[in-house]
Design goal:
The protein is mostly beta strands. The chain has strands spanning 2-7, 10-12, 16-17, 23-27, 31-32, 37-46, 52-60, 69-75. It has one domain (2-75). It is built from no helices and 8 strands. The strands form 2 sheets. Strands 1, 4, 5 and 6 form a 4-stranded antiparallel sheet that branches. Strands 2, 3, 7 and 8 form a 4-stranded antiparallel sheet that branches. β7 and β8 (69-75) form a beta hairpin. The protein is elongated. The two termini are 20 Å apart.
Length: 77
């Protein structure tokens, strides 16, 4: 699970898997706080057998910053 606070929303880069695995990615409802940040929780579920190696980036919206999180996911057999 990826769980973070971010100002101005967020967006995510596409998932890439070396051997073509499919991974279901979903996020919960964004919840804000008085300072304008949003709390978002992502979950990941492999949709097939491995092995595979996948990566996924989460990026703050409207900032031009590099990814705040680069996840490396291993799909085991």
């Amino acid at each position: 699970m990826l769980n973070f606070w971010a100002p101005d929303g967020y967006f995510t880069e596409p998932l890439y898997c070396q051997n073509g695995s499919q991974i279901a990615i979903s996020h919960g409802k964004a919840q804000g706080n008085p300072s304008g940040d949003e709390h978002v929780a992502y979950t990941f579920r492999a949709k097939g057998a491995g092995p595979d190696s996948c990566s996924y980036d989460a990026v703050l919206n409207n900032t031009g910053s590099p990814p705040i999180a680069i996840l490396h996911l291993i799909v085991a057999r």
